[in-house]
Amino acid sequence: MIDTADDARLDFLDARVVEVLERLEQEASTDSARLGEVGASLGRLGATPDAQALQAITTVAEQALLPVARPVGRLLYQLALATGARTIVEYGTSHGMSTLYLAAAAARTGARVIGTELSAAKAATATANLAAAGLAGNTRILVGDARETLRSLTDSIGLLLLDGWIPLHLPIFRIVEPILAPGAVIVSDNVSKHADKIGDFHRYLAARPDRYVRTALPIDDGIDLITRLR
Ligand SMILES: C[S@@+](CC[C@H](N)C(=O)[O-])C[C@H]1O[C@@H](n2cnc3c(N)ncnc32)[C@H](O)[C@@H]1O
User: Fold this and answer.
1) Angstrom distance (rounded) from CA 31 to CA 95
2) 158 CA distance to ligand 1 centroid (A)?
3) Centre of ligand 1 from the C-alpha of residue 164, in Å
4) 180 alpha carbon to ligand 1 midpoint, in Å?
5) For residue 64, which atom of ligand 1 is closest to its CA?
6) 210 C-alpha to center of ligand 1: Å?
7) pLDDT for 126-171, tens place per residue?
8) DSSP E strand boundaries for the chain
9) Residue 213's pLDDT band (boundaries 50, 70, 90)?
10) Are 197 and 167 in contact (CB under 8 A)?
11) Other CB atoms closer than 10 Å to residue 171's CB: what's the count?
12) Angle between helices 97-109 and 120-132 (to 10 degrees)
């Protein structure tokens, strides 16, 4: 039996960061009431939604934070330190829970974190949360459809988190794929919970064994840990 008792500890973070994370966890406690509606919208989304369809699900989820669980946040923190990534990119920022873990690590390594969020209100909240945690300096949230905003990036990405609407994980991945550094690590969240919607991404990776290695980790709703080999 694996002992996971310590996986929810936050004592590696500064008190200001912990305070913001705990407040957001409290705010996210009402997400469960909206999960059914968000899940139904996800089922209708598809990999190539037009702007209207994307806006529709984002509106349904406007009041939901849908954050990463603590063990996922801890893993992101560790990976940001271990990879030494200079540029860390996130698809799906919401109120900035995952961003806080990444930015806390980036504050130690001197990296920068680029988040993406379609909802302008959520992006503003995330920015305020990062400032409250003392982590605004190394973080920027791109507001708008990540399928557009991520095209402006040119710096090589060392760590990528995919935590937006899951049918878009492959299209978003393909947009940033040309600037993924050799050795880059990609984390894709919610892959067990939405196993029926991630097959295209898995097939894409499996067809390129010389370029990507993927390991599924049974953490929270399932994580894919992917490494770019070259
Ligand atoms: C699961 S939540 C992200 C949670 C966040 N990573 C955290 O840990 O707090 C997914 C977010 O992705 C955003 N999103 C989905 N599709 C997007 C797109 N095409 N461009 C930008 N943001 C998008 C949604 O608005 C939503 O807030």
Assistant:
1) 13
2) 20
3) 4
4) 20
5) 27
6) 30
7) 999 999 999 999 999 999 999 999 999 999 999 999 999 999 999 9
8) 87-91, 112-117, 139-143, 157-162, 180-189, 212-217, 223-228
9) very high
10) yes
11) 16
12) 50
pLDDT tens-digit series, residues 26-40: 999 999 999 999 999
Pocket of ligand 1 (CB under 6 A): 54, 58, 61, 65-68, 92-95, 97-98, 116-119, 122, 145-147, 163-165, 168
Residue 82 scores a pLDDT above 90: yes
Closest CA to 168 of 198, 195, 138: 198
pLDDT band at 191 (very low <50, low <70, confident <90, very high): confident
pTM over 0.90: yes
Query: Which residue CA neighbors atom 1 of ligand 1 most closely?
Result: 66
CA separation for the pair 180, 175 (Å, rounded): 10
Ligand 1 pocket test, candidate residues 20, 77, 93, most atoms within 8 A of CB: 93
